[in-house]
Amino acid sequence: MKNKRFWLIGFGLYLLSMGSSYAFFSHLPPKQEEGVVSPVVEKESSPSAKKSAYFFRGPRDQECPINGVKYTKEQREVWEKRRPLLVMIENHLESRPQSGLSRADVVYEAVAEGGITRFMGVFYCAAAEPAPRKYDLGPVRSARTYFLDWASEYADYPLYAHVGGANCSRDPATGRCTTDPRAQALEQIERYGWLDRQHWSDMNQFALPYRVCRREPERTGRTVATEHTMYCDSEALWQEAEKRGLAAQDQSGNSWDADFRPWKFKDGAPLEQRGEINEISFDFWRGYRDYQVRWQYDKEKNQYLRFNGGQPHQDFLTGQQLAAKVIVIQFTREIGPVDSHKHLLYRTIGQGKALVFQDGKVIKASWRKKSRQQRTIFSDARGKEIKFNRGLIWIEVLPAGNQVSYEAS
Fold it and tell me: What is the pLDDT of residues 338-397, one digit of tens each?
């Protein structure tokens, strides 16, 4: 009897112990499989986005030097502590919808290869407003030489973000470089001094930590090839530049805008003075309809809505269609392919024809750029520099001779 009672007490204690253990361990997170590395795609807001909207209240009387938009004093205090950030963003079908182009002050677009265009966004004033989420720019792609010439207009040592680039690829049998020297973007970056430790302005993803740029293979809800998955965090890029001693001033105390030549700006025309050209369309390469561009004019808002390959061009972050205040079409000489890698070149220095669309009208214009670091200036038929409407300026670089259609309603 005594043994039976002892056994019952022991069994009861065992059940109590098991129940307590289950209650404790059932609330622990499940253990991850060893060897599995699957970073969680962060969808939360960027830390800077926690700043309330009222942070930027006040009169908008501070002009952005990049595109003339008026902002508050508090916004100016954000951007004036850093230098412009130039980011290569791709336009392959699998890269759409892109993230962050709506936050650019200026966007350049030109063919990168095979009729596929690429963008370079200039981020400065509009990006003083917090991004809606981290890793707000992308997909980021590789450098091209002609984009370096436009980037050079924004500082001697601009923050240039990209993922690798055209360089001296060598034939494994002979060891000879198979890339035309004129197309070797990475070698040019080094030659321009952007890799010097004193000015280290080159933001090649391969030299950046994971917290700055990372791959998100299912960001848009579908799995795409690896080359279309790199996204960078604008705030982290600027923080990285500051760590390198490259904020508004460099380590030598030189300000990025000491020699910067801003364009001239104006307010948009009143409604009754706006024109009737309601659509602009063109191809970069004939027959490449996926990269055909159409801009549709909204007379009430005095802006142009972008269509990319026949579809409204949306920003993934906002879900809104991209819109610009000024469309500049810059005609220039296309050269190439210049090597077995099918690299192209576009003449950026010199002069040529242009069309400028704003206020529902077109200005038959010309462009000139005297050297790599000097500003591209757009002038009217009388040689007078054109004043751009304040707002996003989109520069479309087309091969000379391409047809542009524009129609009045």
Answer: 999 999 999 999 999 999 999 999 999 999 999 999 999 999 999 999 999 999 999 999
The pair phi, psi for residue 400, each rounded to 5°, is: -55, 135
Cβ partners under 8 Å of residue 130, min gap 6: 45, 46, 48, 49, 50, 51
162 touches 143 (CB < 8 A): yes
Those residues whose C-beta lies under 8 Å from the C-beta of residue 219, and which sit 6 or more positions away, are 41, 99, 229, 231, 316
Burial 10-21 (b: 16+ CB within 10 A, else e): eeeeeeeeeeee
Q: How many CB atoms lie within 10 A of CB 350?
A: 11
The answer to whether residues 234 and 123 touch, using CB atoms and an 8 Å cutoff, is yes
Question: DSSP assignment, residue 96?
Answer: P
DSSP H or E run through 186: helix 185-191
Q: pTM higher than 0.85, yes or no?
A: yes
pLDDT in tens, 197-232: 889 999 999 999 999 999 999 999 999 999 999 999
Q: What angle do CA 174, 175, 179 make, to 5 degrees?
A: 110
Whether omega before 139 lies within 30 degrees of 0, making that bond cis, reads yes
| Distance between CA atoms of residues 338 and 349, nearest Å | 18
- pLDDT over 50 (residue 19): no
pLDDT tens by residue, 228-248: 999 999 999 999 999 999 999
Handedness of CA 22, 28, 29, 35 (dihedral sign): negative
Long-range contacts of 210-213 (CB under 8 A, 24+ apart): 211/236, 212/236, 212/237, 212/240, 213/135, 213/140, 213/161, 213/163
Q: Are 162 and 74 in contact (CB under 8 A)?
A: no
CA 282, 94, 98: angle at the middle one, nearest 5? Answer: 75
Helix or strand run (H / E) with residue 377:
strand 377-379
* Ordered domains of the chain (ranges, CATH): 62-264 (3.50.90.10), 267-408 (3.50.90.10)
Contacts of 113 (CB under 8 A, 6+ apart): 342, 343, 344
The torsion angle over the Cα atoms of residues 259, 399, 291 and 300, rounded to 10 degrees, is: 60
